[in-house]
TrEMBL record, chain A:
GO terms for molecular function: ligase activity. This is Acetyl-CoA carboxylase carboxyltransferase subunit. The lineage of its organism: Bacteria, Bacillati, Actinomycetota, Actinomycetes, Micromonosporales. InterPro entries: AcCoA_carboxyl_beta, ClpP/crotonase-like_dom_sf, COA_CT_C, COA_CT_N, MCCB/AccD1-like. Residues 22-273 form the CoA carboxyltransferase N-terminal domain. SUPFAM superfamilies: ClpP/crotonase.
Automatic annotation (TrEMBL), chain B:
CDD domains: biotinyl_domain (cd06850). SUPFAM superfamilies: Glutathione synthetase ATP-binding domain-like (SSF56059), PreATP-grasp domain (SSF52440), Rudiment single hybrid motif (SSF51246), Single hybrid motif (SSF51230). Keywords: ATP-binding, Biotin, Ligase, Nucleotide-binding. This is Acetyl/propionyl-CoA carboxylase subuit alpha.
Amino acid sequence: MPVLSSAVDPASASYLDNRNAMLKRLAELDSALAAARDGGGERYVRRHRSRGKLLPRERIELLLDRDAPFLELCPVAAWGSDYPVGASTVGGIGTVEGVDCMIVATDPTVRGGAVNPYALKKSQRLGRIAAENRLPLINLVESGGADLPSQSEIFIPGGAVFRDLTQASADRRPTIAVVFGNATAGGAYIPGMSDYTILVREQAKVFLAGPPLVQMATGERTDDESLGGAQMHATRSGLADFLAEDERDAIRLARLVVRRLNWRRRGNQPRPVAAPPRYDQEDLLGVASADQRIPYDPREILARILDGSEFDEFKPLYGTALVTGWGELCGYPIGVLANARGVLFSEESQKAAQFIQLANTSDTPLLFLQNTTGYMVGESYEQGGIIKHGALMINAVANSGVPHLTVNVGASYGAGNYGMCGRAFDPRFLFSWPHARSAVMGAAQLAGTLEIVARQAAAARGQEFDEDAATVIRLGVEQQIDRESVALFLSGKLYDDGVIDPRDTRTVLGLALSAVHSGPVRGAAGFGVFRM
Amino acid sequence: MIRRLLVANRGEIARRVFATCRAMGIETVAVYSDPDAGASHTQEADRAVRLPGDAAAATYLRADLLVEAALRAGADAVHPGYGFLSENAGFAETVLDAGLTWVGPPAKAIAAMGSKLEAKRLLADAGVPMLPSTVDPAHVTSFPVLVKASSGGGGRGMRIVRDPGELAAAVDAARREAAAAFGDGTVFCERYVERGRHIEVQVFADSQGNTVALGERECSIQRRHQKIIEEAPSPAVTPELRRALYEAATGAAQAVGYVGAGTVEFLLDPSGEFYFLEMNTRLQVEHPVTEGVLGIDLVRLQLLVAEGAPLPFTEPPPVRGHAIEARLYAEDPAHDWRPSTGTLHRFEIPGVVESFRPADRAGLRLDSGVAGGSVIPVHYDPMLAKLIAWAPSRAEAARLLAAALASARVHGVVTNRDLLVRVLREAEFGEGGTDTGFLDRHPETLTPLVSTVDHLRLPCLAAALASAAGRASARSVAVPSGWRNVPSAPQVVGYDGPAGPVQVSYRLDRTGALAAWSVLPVARGRAGIPDALSPPSAGEVAPDAGSFAEAAGDPVTLVRATPDSVVLEAGGVRTEFAVHRVGDVSYVDGVDGCVTLVELPRYPLPEPALAEGSLVAPLPGAVGKVLVEPGQKVDAGALLLTLEAMKLEHQVCAPGPGVVTELLVQAGSQVDTGTVLAVITPE
């Protein structure tokens, strides 16, 4: 295979500028991750530990195979909202007894692990990833149930969590619930709907209604242990399959369950020895342009994430603003679509549509590296059929059957976001670099557009246009759009599966590919009608 | 001429004799007990004959079986080696009566020297200097005295008595021990010489009446009267003293009509006076040091003399340089010299130039009865091997020997290796201050080379990183080990090691570099397992690396890690740790020595919860009598059943009034500590 060359000069001014800008974004990411890690804050963490209990990440660390990687997903969910960063849930993909599993742990230090609207969204997203990639699901439960003040946003949609659990079982995707503390009311159905349940002695509390509510409802006076203690469920109700002596024992039992799942992956194994890239992944910090108006060559990224920096480019001389081609990543074959010069024209769209179909004929997963300002606008492009050609590409993306992985490595604007497999097009995983932005259009363009429309409206009404007020409005709009376009904000809204350090791109994609191959990898049998 | 020789012995000495046989064109016959069926001496011989059973008494000590084996294999001569029947006059006679050649002294000479008391009487008459001694404890007037068994050797039955009040008890105990070990309870009391030195002279006599002294050896470094380091020549022997020793030794040999190889042992007191101790009528374990400095093969001489040939010299060859031998034992000096058994997973000693024969150049000689994979049985002497350094000077020999032992890979059983290294590197040893009180004066030599948590940090870290490298290579997707996009806690692993349980924490960054690490002692929790193995909390470990490395002192760089080798750089110095993992055990060999680490279970099994009123066996044993039946009412303190263990009868009684609701054993049941015997439900 041809080896990519690199024009990166780590001593150049532009490289250093890019790198400094990226480090600033990474510092912001780090503080967001620190906030997530802090959970409910020092006081609640201390109280939790003083009870001899482990924190959610500690439970996950103990559950994972030693030295196994763990890809935490949606770690900054709820960033920019009124709820704590992380959405009182920790989840991700890691290996347990050699099996790639989706592990989801509630964080009891955040308001008792109560489910708020972001927590619900996050757990549903994690459940969906588990479903699409055929991953066994391990729930590490300690949650007080629904966050009552926001129940209107949770109660009705929240039922889907339980539906998904039992459908996972029907889909022969094992579900395991380890209950460390409260799992009451609706939460009781998490163990209730799981294939395997493990309850920790003298900690787990699983009941539909606690003693006060029972007393209100029927007058019966009772206590937590009799209503829903681990011992009771293990010996009387049968809800507990295993009675764990303590948290560590519960995790031991969970691993024992996984060991006996007789789990077999459906996808291909990767090539046994994958050559590392020939270029330093550290350079990725200086590769991406800090100024989004300056496009950069995505081959510089590919040279740092593909095995041996080897890349077979497809149609290299046609539609050159979109790079397409084949390579391998961590031993898995992969097809790549990467924006080279921001704009998508008719040629690029047609090239993409063809390439995606080819990948589907060879059951090859696709990687989309987004850095696009959208499809080209203007008279000659409209007349040349840019909508029609963009539709070709969007059709191919939407109906493609092979797994898609998307990384926003700069910009993702307009319909370009759709054509390059944005969130709505259900890539199996979607990650963003810290400086990435996404919106219907750029903040300045959007504010400017609004101003032009307002000016036209004023002119139509014969009113005088208030220039000063318009400037204030324009700047306000620009700031708002700018704020809502950044990676952390979008990740907070769960529009991606995480903001990643560019240097981790290969690792993240390798783990994602491993997860993807837990299930079958198969191309689509047919597409929708391509408008010619 | 001997055509085919049977060696009535095992292990290292059998191999030693075989080596000379091969060099001389003599065919070899081994005997082996059942546990030795796969032993190296069994495999190495041209022919091997089984001695059914495992205990020495049923195998290597059975003269009849040994002679039968020799006849069955067509051997025409028998070499007894040392130990077992080597100094048994009856065995020599049995061999000779069967028409076989006996490679050893005449039975009469063996018998004469077999009783120390007899030998002392005989040789005192021949003018050999003796310590005052008596068989009657009532005649002892000055202390300290040494109580010794008249028969046998190896320090069995020997006791030093300093307090007159303790003499009677010591004599009784020595009698019992000697009677049990040698079938002869005769003991005697001898003046005890403080800071004495054990000097012995190798003598050789042929059947033509020539007797020659082949140099002296010093064997003063002893543990419990068992030699562990021997050397030739002795740093304490002057030329005049040497002449006197030689004269006394050859005189002793001639007095009993000695033929073949023998050793006359003397005690040298600090004033330079020496006294006869005993004569060993066989080849000594430590003969290689003599072979080293003289360049002669003593086994070859034995065989030639047994064939009736005269000694090839009348004067000993000149002494060349210095030789020191260290005996490597499977025993734990730090725990009362407890013998250690099991599988020797690895046995590698670097730089060995010769085995079982005198070397023709300075360097290391290894005489070993074991190899990697050998099983060390419980039935025999725990000596694994002898390592002999021969060098132009004593200091060089000691340095070479210490270095070779320190870098040897001996995995699977606990050995005295570290003790040997510490002794050889001790300043007083270098000065030649090697009297029999050496180990008592230097108790620090009992400590393993690497034993403090400070010294254990890097080996423990290396063990953990080697295991991590092993797991990384087994993963299908090659991503950085332990990678996290949201780092919160390091990897944690617990080991039980020479300083008790420790917890190793480490985190590697995306490039595989060591981002943070610590090695901390932890308290022993339930079932001997640290209870603090959960990773430190997020607050204690900052994700930006390095913060918990402070506990470890200098920053450490991971240069390279594979499953069996880890190279670390600490304080600007790079060293390699070889890691050998067998099951849960990691053997880490570094520049400072070897550390054995047992990985603690990550998920300790919970203790079984006992039903209320359960009575458990307090110790392992067999159930004797059972006095109750299920359903029976019992009063508090009622005897329920008895347990027999270690000749004791342990009574199990009801803790309070109640009903026997469960009876889980019957008379004769074997039980372990903690086995539930019965359940008494209180009333």
